[in-house]
Amino acid sequence: MLVTERKLLIFVSTRFLFPVDSGGKIRTTQILRGLKDREFRIVLLSPASADLVRTYRDELDTVCDEFRWWKEPRRGRLFRYTRMRHLKSRLPIPVRTDRDAAGLALVSDALDRSPAVAVYDFAHSGVFLPDALDCPSVMFTHNVEAEIFRRHRDVARNPIFRMIWANQYRKMREFERQTLDRFDVVVAVAERDAEQFVTDYGTREPFVIPTGVDLTFFGYAAPERRRDVVFLGSMDWMANQDGIGFFMADVWERIAAAVPDARMTVVGRAPPENLLQEARRRNLNWTFTGFVDDVRPYVQGSAVSVIPLRIGGGTRLKVYEAMAMGSAVVSTAIGVEGLPVEAGRHYLEANDAPAFAGAVVELLEDDQRRDRLSREARSFVEDNFSYTVAAQAFETACNLAMERHAETAT
To answer: Same domain for 160 and 22?
Structure first.
């Protein structure tokens, strides 16, 4: 039997992928898991530590054939403030803080192995590009980074913060444009993102992959916990902090007035102290879980999952996960942006405080409406999404990169 040697794929990430505690990590690990043991031999590169590698050795083996790492920088409790020293850098602050000399050397060494394709995860990883990228290449975007910065600018109330966000938006827009322009294929996770890349940056025919969900893991449960409201998302992401701050300050009081025994659970790592203190000050019936190993006990069976986002980009894996688990969804338009979901059928849409509170109250009080929305959403996810389909599409994008690179080389 003839065995064909698998082609080498280098995958560059600016963050260690485990634990899988954010939407981006979920999407990336699902894609890698679907790619593994097929056409490519995967070498994953990211920051890490010896302890992390030992702890997550088994998980790493499910997503790559070889893992290579540089020392993960220490970021203390004051990191969000100390990184402001990079404000004068030509790079956006989060990109500049990702740059690492050891990482550059490791990526350069991997590229010297002449991979069949090099994949860079998130636009931020462009900080590890060499002066000349001489192999087929794919940029795996998860959102339009500059758009997130622009939305932060637009909602900032403090004029100093607004000025900082405006500064960072300009830098991110330029960095993102220059970075995407260097790749043979830009992969987008939503049609609207792809259209924006073309319009704003002149990107050549971005390749859109579907969002994938592990439907076996995220099993369905009817939303029978009639007073439970839940939010699912990493709480060290500023867009989620803004959304939960808005929900707490402007929406929850209206819900509690109509349904006094309603309970709110915020499921996600690293909730900021200011939100914890504000919930205590207001004496709210809220729980912040912090990091949890398994989100399913909190979401499955809950009446409503809320997505009160006013900032963000890309697509929200958490939307499909909540739908898969049966929790009826109430979201702003931004919260489901880029997803082919239908308001009133798969979720309820609300874009201001009174409407958002009204939609949540309706689902808490109307069992039939809540159950119908829950089942319709689960069926929609079952019929249209799985992570294996998304991974196969990503494999096609890698082959397209090889074709395009060969074209430009001749």
So the answer is: yes
